[in-house]
Amino acid sequence: MSEHPFLGGPRDWWRQAVVYQMYPRSFADANADGIGDLRGIIAKVDYLASLSIDAVWLSPFYPSELADGGYDVADYRDVDPRIGTLAEFDELVEKLHARQIRLFVDIVPNHSSDQHVWFQEALKSPPGSRERARYIFRDGRGANGELPPSDLSSHFGPEGWTRTPDGQWYMHLFTKEQPDFDWSNREVHDEFLKTLKFWSDRGVDGFRIDVAHALVKQLEPLPTRSSYSLDVMKDDGTDSLFDRDEVHEIYKEWRQLFNQYDPPRVAVAEAWVHPHRRPAYATTDGLGQAFNFDLLTSAWDAEAFQSVIDANLDFANQTGSSTTWVMSNHDVIRHATRLVIPSDLGGVTFDAENHWYVNHRLDGDLDLEKGLARAKAATLLMLALPGSSYLYQGEELGLPDVTDIPSDQMQDPQWFRGEGKFKSRDGCRVPLPWKATGSSFGFGDGGSHLPQPTWYSKFAVEVQDGNPGSTLELYRAALALRKRLISGESLSWRSSESGTLWFEREGGWSCFTNFTDHQVSLPQGEVLLTTTEISGSKVPANSTVWLRLP
Ligand code: NOJ
To answer: Do strands 266-269 and 206-209 pair parallel, antiparallel, or not at all (unpaired)?
Structure first.
């Protein structure tokens, strides 16, 4: 196995790691084509090191027609030429490792792109052929097979089956450009093991597994579905599409591969399952860790946060894993905006968030100052929790979501194909502002593939760098301090007044959050870090403070 001096670190480095998610097309563009690239990331490795993160997770950078932001992969073992080359990928791994930063890549095993060589071969091959057996092809219903094989919608729109020129249909849970693999076929298993080994051998330290709960499906009888809400998913391992018990056999085999490396490669499952089913994805003989998205659907409310925290620490204990925390990613409205969407208009569940986006995003009446205060307070709380935290590029700048991208410049298939029911995810994928002025605010010299608003200028890295009151410097201070403070993984609650949460961590430090819109009393202790300046003995509204206990 390939070795790098840095890879010899502790085997459990991931348990309380901070992972910075990058949407590569929107991070930094070195070759002036308006699309972020690996050279752009390489040029920013010092910036990443200045954040004291433990790892970077790259959303897909593989060749792709971009039918779904790169989650339609045409070749799992290459780099999209618009993003770079494998040689540049190797250089990035080396540069990150030299700065003690590990690297996760995204694996998309439920579906490929329709441009993938396997799917192209399948289209050219007859029904019943070995080539078609890698995907889910079926004859249609009706006298001439003109009706889809079952009543199945997709996540992004009405149809879950698409007809091919020879009359057969193929199944896709996402866009029609993302045909689902048939995981009952051994060839599919072998292909993914080859891909995981390919990247592990190149020095990749971990994998984020896309829709990890969908791989195994019941195909007899064929699944039907018109809604993808969790409410309709069975929670006993027998659902026809998701979270079937057999899926874990796949991950056990992957774990055997991961454990051949030193330290073992790590993996985190993106599994939108009933919370009590999540631990099964995080077992030590499986993927090892699973995303916990509960804070993404949590109201800005002390009790709601506390119950999410307790439940997830409990789940982690059940498997010997550590939990994960996420406030923002490439699929949701950035938390500086989300946390002030009025609860009667949305803001908590995804359905409500979609409703707000579709009907109210242009109203322009959100209190974004309060949103930023809450976002910083939520992040500092998250960073004080046991487990690992996932940050999303740009949140360290306090960026709000861009909610007014003109429809003709949007790229997200969820928006175009969602029959007006779903939000666009483009608003959190707008290229980052590095400079206050100039072409694309320093993203690159060739424009930006999604339009940047003029107000991006005031959030630019250049404006915040070295400015003690900035969000960027708060993140830097918090992440550096967290590295020094974090030891064991236990948390104990301290009693505090209603609307606040206070917990203690091993080593005599604590985190206090004021969720209310008014100031409250500061608990006793030495203030180590605060999201809002404190004067006297009061904690301002919507603020978090880290305190050394007396
Ligand atoms: C989850 C990814 O996070 C999302 O961006 C993508 O659209 C779907 N999986 C399909 O791959």
So the answer is: parallel
Q: What angle do CA 277, 282, 286 make, to 5 degrees?
A: 110
Name the strands in the sheet holding 526-530, side by side, starting at the edge strand that comes first in the sequence: 491-493, 500-505, 509-514, 543-548, 526-530
Compute CA distances 21 → 12, 26, 331, 422, whole Å. 20, 11, 12, 23
Using CA atoms, how far apart are residues 414 and 434, in angstroms rounded to an integer? Answer: 28
Whose C-alpha lies nearest to ligand 1, atom 10?
71
Which ligand 1 atom is nearest residue 72's CA? 11
What spacing in Å lies between the alpha carbon of 150 and ligand 1's midpoint?
A: 23
Q: What is the block-wise mean pLDDT of the chain (550 residues), using blocks of 10 residues?
A: 46 93 98 98 98 98 97 98 98 97 98 98 98 98 97 91 98 97 98 98 98 97 92 95 98 98 95 93 95 92 96 90 96 95 68 88 93 98 97 98 95 87 94 96 97 98 97 98 94 97 97 98 96 95 97
Which of 173, 177, 210 most suits a substitution to test ligand 1, by most atoms within 8 Å of the C-beta? Answer: 210
Residues with C-beta less than 6 Å from any ligand 1 atom: 68-69, 71, 108, 174, 210-211, 270, 330-331
